[in-house]
Amino acid sequence: ASAGDGPDWLVLFKTAACPYCRGLVPVWDAVAASLGTRVRVGSCDAAASPQLASRFGVCAFPTILLFHRGSMYEFVGPRTTDALVDFALGGFRAHNLDLERSRSRCSTTPGRAVPPPPPSSAP
Question: The whole model's pTM is what?
Answer without folding.
Answer: 0.79
